Amino acid sequence: MKKLVFVLACCLSLSTWADVLTLKPGHPQSYVVKKGDTLWDISALFLDDPWRWPKLWGANPQIANPHLIYPGDRLTLVFLDGEPRLEHKPSVRMSPEPRVTGKGAIPALPLSVIEPYINYHTVLSPKELKDNPVVVGGERDAVAYAQGDVVFIKDSLPIGSRYGIYAPGRPLQDPQTGEMLGREARLSATGQVIESGSISKLQVLSSRSEIIPGQRLKPISDETLLPGHFTPHPAPEGLEGQIIASDDNAREIGPLQVAIINKGSEDGAAPGQVYAIHQPGVEVLKSGRGDKETYRDEVTHRAYDKVMSLLSDGRVIVLPEVYRGEMMLFRTYDKVSYGLILNGRRPARMEDKVLRPEPMVFGERSDP
């Protein structure tokens, strides 16, 4: 009974200590926000765990964007009931024009990196690939079309509605189940419906690349614009996934590069969520005896080793998972999400595991 009480006390102690917000050694006492800053950058000045920004800020998670931050604002570190908090003093504006809420506020992530994935990329679900309107030709006798052309769309579309025309890209599959999660697509052009019927006509208003028959349409909506100013926060408890692709098919992914995971809005994924990245435990195979004992990883397994690992007990050893870094989601679709690699301690790789991050329990205590 005493042992049980002791174990419970230790668990409660560790849980309480992990919940204590620890400040980064050498943190500033105050900071003036500069143009080009991101919430992640500023949070990393004060915290070893930048995703714990809402706790440092004292934000109410039930209120969206309770405090937008702008260049020129001053953030000052104070202690309330022994807990560190940042006080926010907005900059004094000399212009007579009122500040428009959200306009010019610093983003969570660098927009220069994520903007192309918001404005010019999408993921078409299997249903969209089957049902969305498709380009079947155009008024001009050509094999490809561009800005100013009128193209034919196989569907009855409302006059005046606006669409993006997308060229299909690579398929995205779940590495475990093989399920088709969607297909990447890049924006070729935008247009507006000028005539409706079983074959509708769409005027091409702008084009980034050629339009060819077979490309799919997707309505232009607020979701295709840059997301709101979300704040970093940990992924939900129990939501785990894998990295299934990178932005340029690279084998390894480093800081400020985009990774795609096999979890989407249907699973509870949302912009602003931060995930820890771990290399799954690697299996090594024990062979030999005594001073000739060796251990091979799965890459150097011989065919004989693989057979023996299936027949013998105790020959396969699973090594611990290895922490690689963190990523923050900035765009989610039904079954996949795009995120930016941050805090890359080691390069992330395909099929690495992503899960809710755990607070650091060592560092500077938050004593006043």
TrEMBL record:
<dbReference type="InterPro" id="IPR018392">
    <property type="entry name" value="LysM"/>
</dbReference>
<keyword id="KW-0732">Signal</keyword>
<dbReference type="InterPro" id="IPR052196">
    <property type="entry name" value="Bact_Kbp"/>
</dbReference>
<protein>
    <submittedName>
        <fullName>LysM domain-containing protein</fullName>
    </submittedName>
</protein>
<feature type="domain" description="LysM">
    <location>
        <begin position="29"/>
        <end position="77"/>
    </location>
</feature>
<feature type="signal peptide">
    <location>
        <begin position="1"/>
        <end position="18"/>
    </location>
</feature>
<dbReference type="Pfam" id="PF01476">
    <property type="entry name" value="LysM"/>
</dbReference>
<dbReference type="InterPro" id="IPR036779">
    <property type="entry name" value="LysM_dom_sf"/>
</dbReference>
